[in-house]
Every structure is written in structure tokens, then in C-alpha cells.
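Re-run with default settings, no changes from the original entry. Doing this only to confirm the output is reproducible before filing.
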Amino acid sequence: MVVISELSKEELYVWVIDLLAEMFELDKSALKPESHLYTDLDIDSIDAVDLAVKLTQLTGLRMQPEVFKQIRTISDVIDALSNLAKNPTSPQSETPASSATSTSP
């Protein structure tokens, strides 16, 4: 599991670029912070859901759908992950453990 809170913004950028290149068979050299996921990289809504699921699997953190819907560029992904790492229990994020309620007596 990747602990994104331990990564600098530059390391996080490299990690996201590697992930996008691997998942969507993109040329890393063409990926820039301002690259638009949908128009520049041809990532569609199904791909975006796949990315959200993969980020959750790799980090153990889950972005709220409202946050993920606002992401347009690679820089937006980096910013959202940085914020998520800083505030894992904020309204922006929810981990499976934090959403569970205790049912023990």
C-alpha cells in the first residue's frame, strides 16, 4: 500500500504519472500537470471510475464521489490526493473502517 502522506508533491506526481501511464497505456512524456484527463488523455467516465477504484486499492483512502467529479487535470488528481492524505477523516474522504458503525453490545 502506498502511504501518500509520506510522499512529497513531486513524488506523488511521479507516482500518479506512472499509474496513469500503466493503467491507460499513455506515453509518460506526454503527461503534464495541466493535461486534461478527458480531452487530452481520452479518459472516459468508466476509466475515471477505474482510476478512483485503483487509487483506493493502492492507498487505502477513498475520495468522496463529489470530490472526484471535480477532478479535471492531472494536477487536480495530485491536489485531491494531497488533501486526502492530510485530512483522511475529512468530509472529502472516507475509508471503509471509518464508515462502519459498531454493532457490538
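The domain at 4-88 is CATH 1.10.1200.10 (Non-ribosomal Peptide Synthetase Peptidyl Carrier Protein; Chain A). The helical segments are 9-24, 45-59, 65-69, 74-86, 96-99.
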